[in-house]
Amino acid sequence: MTRFTVNGQPVHYRMDPETPLLWALRDASNLTGTKYGCGTGHCGACTVHIDGNAVRSCQVSIAAIEGSFVTTIEALSRDRSHPVQQAWVAEQVPQCGYCQSGMIMAAAALLARKGNPTDAEIDSAITNICRCGTYPRIREAIRRAGRVISGRERISAAPPPGVDPEDAAREVPALRAPSAAHKRKGS
């Protein structure tokens, strides 16, 4: 049995200790925001935080992180209010979106260490691959999130499409029956 903490909850996986963290998160914990991209640690779609550091979860076994604290995109902020997530929306970074959760996790780890990174520091720390090529917007979103974190700027970005602004700031389960108001809107 392998024990560590995922998104603030203690877990123990009854899986082969050499199972990559990526598969424990996706298959056993149903945390599907962590994506499988290449399986070799090159693309970064599977990036999570382990003890605050950005780590490619496809490259670390669950046995190797015994006693660690893991944070996935699902727990970065429950209401998508983390400055990196808000900057991503404000700068219209995503295109296909597949790499975005890993990219956001890498950016959040960078900004936790270095609040105002230079372009060279961003390029050095964010080695994730975006097949859509949104790198200029990614860099600007990271710089903007840094300004927000330092209090030099405020963002009032809208929630993602399909999320009611009133619901975006609440810590409620994503799957629930639509409210009467939502039913009327669709009628």
Explained architecture:
This protein is α+β, with helices and mostly antiparallel strands. It has 2 domains: 2-76, Beta-grasp domain (Ubiquitin-like (UB roll), Roll), CATH 3.10.20.30; 83-149, [2Fe-2S]-binding domain (DNA polymerase, domain 1), CATH 1.10.150.120. 36% of the residues lie in helices and 11% in strands. It has helices at 21-28, 73-76, 83-90, 100-113, 119-125, 135-149, 165-168, 180-186; strands spanning 2-6, 9-13, 47-50, 53-56, 69-71. β3 (47-50) and β4 (53-56) form a beta hairpin. α4 (100-113) packs across α6 (135-149). The chain is globular and about 45 Å long. It starts with a strand and ends with a helix. The model is unreliable at 169-187 (pLDDT under 50). Residues 1-76 form the 2Fe-2S ferredoxin-type domain. InterPro entries: 2Fe-2S-bd, 2Fe-2S-bd_dom_sf, 2Fe-2S_ferredoxin-like_sf, 2Fe-2S_ferredoxin-type, 2Fe2S_fd_BS, Beta-grasp_dom_sf, Diverse_Oxidoreductases. Keywords: 2Fe-2S, Iron, Iron-sulfur, Metal-binding, Oxidoreductase. Residues 153-187 are annotated as: Disordered. This is (2Fe-2S)-binding protein.
Which features characterize this protein?
187 residues; alpha+beta; Ubiquitin-like (UB roll); DNA polymerase, domain 1; 2 domains; 5-stranded mixed sheet
